[in-house]
C-alpha cells in the first residue's frame, strides 16, 4: 500500500512544498494539509505502518527524520531540531519512539 492509496497526491505535494524550508516543519499543519486529520482511525494506523519503515511497530527517531519522505520520496529530511520537536510531541510514554497509538493521538491533536 502506498501513501497515495490513502491520501490525495495533490494534497501531499502542497503540504510537502509548504514545509520545504529547513526548520519550518509544523506537524499539526502538515497533518491537516495532507488530509490525515480527516481520516478514519483505521486509515491513520495504515499511514503509521507505511511510515514505520523497519516494521518494528514503532517510528524511531531515525525514521522520524525521514517522515516527509514517507509521504513523498523527493521531500527533504527533517532537521535534527524538527525531529526532536516531533519526537517530543509524539512520544507520550518517553521511550524514545512513537507507537501506533501515540501516532494516532499526535494526529488527533493536530
In brief:
This protein has 110 residues and is mostly helical.
Describe this structure in words.
- The protein is mostly helical and 110 residues long.
- The chain has one domain (3-109): Orthogonal Bundle (Recoverin, domain 1).
- Helix content is 55%, strand content 5%.
- The chain contains eight helices and two strands.
- Strands 1-2 form a two-stranded antiparallel sheet.
- The longest helix is centred in the middle third of the chain and has 11 residues, at 41-51.
- The protein is globular.
- It starts with a helix and ends with a helix.
- It comes from Macaca fuscata fuscata (Japanese macaque).
- Residues 39-74, 78-110 form the EF-hand domain.
- Ca(2+) 2 binds at residues 91, 93, 95, 97, 102.
Principal-axes geometry comes out as: globular
User: Which strand order do you get reading across the main beta sheet?
Assistant: 1-2
Assembly category = single chain
What is the assigned CATH homologous superfamily? EF-hand
Poorly predicted runs are: none
Do you know the CATH architecture?
A: Orthogonal Bundle
Q: What's the CATH topology label?
A: Recoverin, domain 1
The SSE order reads: HHHHEHHHEH
State the total count of DSSP E strands: 2
The fraction of residues in strands falls at 5-15%
Q: What is the makeup of the main sheet?
A: 2 strands, antiparallel
CA-CA gap between termini: 24 Å
| Amount of helix | 55-70%
Radius of gyration: 12 Å
> For the residues shown, what is the average pLDDT?
97
Amino acid at each position: 500500500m502506498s501513501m497515495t492509496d490513502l491520501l490525495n497526491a495533490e494534497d501531499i505535494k502542497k503540504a510537502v512544498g509548504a514545509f520545504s524550508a529547513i526548520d519550518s516543519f509544523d506537524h499539526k499543519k502538515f497533518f491537516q494539509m495532507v488530509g490525515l486529520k480527516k481520516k478514519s482511525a483505521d486509515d491513520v494506523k495504515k499511514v503509521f505502518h507505511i511510515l514505520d519503515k523497519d516494521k518494528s511497530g514503532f517510528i524511531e527517531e531515525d525514521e522520524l527524520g525521514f517522515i516527509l519522505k514517507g509521504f513523498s520520496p523527493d521531500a527533504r529530511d527533517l532537521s535534527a531540531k524538527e525531529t526532536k520537536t516531533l519526537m517530543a510531541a509524539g512520544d507520550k510514554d518517553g521511550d524514545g519512539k512513537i507507537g501506533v497509538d501515540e501516532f494516532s493521538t499526535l494526529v488527533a491533536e493536530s
